[in-house]
Amino acid sequence: MQSYGVETIHTSNQGKNYADLKLAIDVLNSMYTNDNIDEFIITSNDKDMTPLLNTVRLNKRKASILTTGNTYNHTLCEFADEQIEFDKIVEIEYKGTLLIDEIKDRFFDDIKKHIEKSLYEYSTEGSKGYKKHYNLDYFLITQMDYYNVLKYEMLNIVSILYSEKKIIAYTSHVKNNVLPAIIPTEFKEKFLEFGIIQQSDICSNFDFNKSVLECYDNYKPKDKN
Which of 20, 86, 116, 211 has a CA-to-CA distance to 189 between 20 and 30 Å? Predict the structure, then answer.
């Protein structure tokens, strides 16, 4: 779970489980510090969650309840805008293509076209230096706007492509700045042949997972205290 950016929290002390209290505190903190959240989905069968659901709705946010089995309290559902039954979710067979996969494929095609064009211009125009490096940080900012996804989601797509060995990471040298950049693996030999990069510039083990988690942390609500 942590590899996907999910923060796991210990909620037991001397045999007492305080998961419901911790859940309520996290929801309230998120609701009062983050205006970007439109809906809260709470997984619980316990009617003790009714005050929390009611508070979420009073603050003009959608409150949904995800119940499991048949042991849930029906009063709980009356305080929610929508009840979602877990058993019905797991029975659904998704036959389409995930949006994240569509974006990944589109991005990979786009970056290949970009690199092909840049290499052609570099080889035919006799430029003294290759200036169109796909700098990682700049790329993430432009692509997240283009594909309308959050920065850490875009970085996760790059991480998947890297794990599939479809791209490589290297350090680019532009105006005395050393910055991480990426290219499709199929262009590696051309970049070496043209002298755009050296073998020593290639990052053999770039930690994209760490970068994803660090980026994800920036989206967490900050403690105002």
Answer: 211
Distance CA 43, CA 212 (A): 26
E-assigned strand segments in the chain: 12-13, 16-17, 39-43, 62-67, 82-85, 167-174, 177-184, 202-203
Task: Return the structure tokens found at 7.
Answer: 């923060």
Q: What is the pTM of this model?
A: 0.54
Over residues 29-71, the pLDDT tens digits come to 999 998 889 999 998 898 889 999 999 999 999 999 999 888 8
pLDDT (tens digit, 9 = 90+) per residue, 184-214? 999 999 999 988 888 999 988 888 777 777 7
Q: Which two tokens stand for residue 66?
A: 């995800």
Report the phi/psi class of residue 176: left, alpha or beta, with left for phi > 0 and alpha for psi in -120 to 50. left
Residue 203's φ and ψ, nearest 5 degrees, are -90, 110
Q: Output phi, psi for 184, to 5 deg.
A: -60, 140
